[in-house]
């Protein structure tokens, strides 16, 4: 019995706690599921498989990808995804006895989301003036942090509609996947920065005396900056900031509301990694960052593992292969034994790498997902991944 007790470190008998993803999906209090992880670890596939499994359990689900790669659309059998949720045909064939499940999917369009946000905070004429401004056209597609801010905005939009009872978010690869946690503060710093305040000073000035003082200050500033940026760019930037200034409060309020949504009890983060040193180092970063932000971490999905089901050791398998080969025995049996020995060595290496993670983060629940023999490219493949995630 002692081996089954959960110790103070959160492990059971020295093994990591099991991550019960099926229980998480079935829990109607789970409203938002955020999948994050480094590139190439199967994060997008994991997000799609979890969304599909939840829909087949009777939940109304939308999966949002921020990753511009088209892997999600391809695995869902869709030609493309855009900024509007669309139904996934054939996703609900297994829901006959499970209620009114639904699966929709979409991919973040950063510029379109920014446009929608501007339109929602001002009049049509003022919005059009902002859209036509070259400076806006630049920052709405390439300013650092815009993608992450728009991801928060889109998540907030989806949540506020109440159309789905589960939103699954597939974040960008690498550490930028958590940059959306900083998005409100980053945009606030940009709009409250010294240059931006000077650009908007003429519009903010009140009385004639104040306008005169601000005007002289702005003229000196404009003269200096125009030699660096160019006169037209400075004029575009000034016009944009003065038009945008009154909208910022609404933007900040919405971003902060979404930030609170990410910390709410109905949200869970799932970190996805492969059993490789670099991927698990990134996973450690995610776990530590989520902990520092007090974000609700569900656990770690260790993807593409290579478990060994036979009891024969690698050393004995290699010895047997060598014996057969020296006696010119069964070549096929020798080859199988060598394959088994390689598999044992791979599994042992993966356990060592995972051991470093679990020693650093002993309370994090883990589910390992065995590698498939082929790439996942359709709904049946996603269903199989879903079964492995729930095993």
Q: What does this protein structure show overall?
A:
The chain has 391 residues and is α/β, with parallel strands linked by helices. The chain has 16 helices and eight strands. Strands 3-4-2-5-1-6-7-8 form an eight-stranded mixed beta sheet, with helices on both faces. Helix 2 (43-56) packs across helix 16 (379-389), helix 8 (183-191) runs antiparallel to helix 12 (248-263) and helix 9 packs across helix 10. It is elongated and about 85 Å long.
Brief summary of the model shown:
This protein is of the alpha/beta class. The chain has helices spanning 21-26, 43-56, 71-75, 110-119, 124-132, 134-142, 146-161, 183-191, 194-204, 208-229, 231-244, 248-263, 277-292, 314-326, 331-360, 379-389; strands at residues 32-36, 60-65, 86-87, 102-107, 166-170, 267-273, 297-305, 366-370.
Low-confidence stretches: 1-13, 200-231
The count of DSSP E runs of length 2 or more, i.e. the number of strands, is 8
The major pleated sheet works out as: 8 strands, mixed
User: Could you say which overall geometry the principal axes of the C-alpha atoms support?
Assistant: elongated
Ends apart, CA distance between termini: 23 Å
Q: How are the strands of the biggest sheet laid out side by side?
A: 3-4-2-5-1-6-7-8
Proportion of residues in extended strands: 5-15%
Fraction of residues in helix: 40-55%
- Give the overall pLDDT as a whole number: 79
Report the structural category: alpha/beta
